Amino acid sequence: MLAACDAVVHAAAHVAPWGPDAPFRQVTVAGTERLLRAMDPAARLVVIGTASVYDPRIPHVLVLEAEAPVAADRYLNAYGRAKADQERLVLAAHPDAVVLRPRAIWGPGDTTLLPRILARVRAGRLPLPGGGRHPMSTTHISSLTTAVAAALERPAVGGPVNVADATPTTPARLIGMLFEALGRNVRIVAVPTTMAWAAAAAVEGVWRVAGRSNEPPITRYAVAGLARAFTLDLGRLHRELEVQPDVDVAWAAGELAARDADR
Hints:
The chain starts with 6 loop residues before the first strand and ends with a helix. Helix content is 42%, strand content 15%. It contains 9 helices and 10 strands. The chain has one domain: 3-Layer(aba) Sandwich (Rossmann fold), CATH 3.40.50. The longest helix has 18 residues. By secondary structure, it is of the alpha/beta class. The protein is globular. The strands form 4 sheets. The protein has a 4-stranded parallel sheet, with helices on both faces. Strands 3-10 form a two-stranded parallel ribbon. A two-stranded parallel ribbon has the order 5-7.
């Protein structure tokens, strides 16, 4: 079936902040290898990558596509390593493919980002490293689908392309607006970043010694994503794919809350 397609959008991956390398390698890397063998080499290929291929150990302000991937030992989890290898594999085989790098995808249907944050609320309080005050790029699902459509329509564009809403926000603002839309009175409690990092490292150590496969309550990957500035340079998205998606955070939070109420 794939051999007959003139375009392929590849979104499959094993997505989790924690776990052994094997399932990430089997699904994300080996699965992509099978896809590349099955599809027509002349077909347009758009891969949903991730901004997690950037170095998670440092802050990023308007980070450029050329700054990733990085060395394997810089990544904090198997997800980042596998997505970096997937990207290398795709662009080695198909230099004309587009690898979209969204960051913090959210919106209707989100089962990863905001549900995990909501699950951390205890007694009306949500601890956030650094209070969630640093600027970050986020990507509403509508912005990602707009970028996918644009990539399919512009075959001359290849390589990695950052994807995010044009207006950065902060974790505290995004989460606060979602709580407000849900009618929940939740107070964000600032946790010193050094304390959060040390706690995450300690918990991960305990999980490894115990051989536990379930997700720890806190990980360095989560701390890194919330505790530092992380904004993407969107030049390629705006100039080459010719789209400048943005979303009104308050409206989108209200839409998400309304859908949650309907369920």
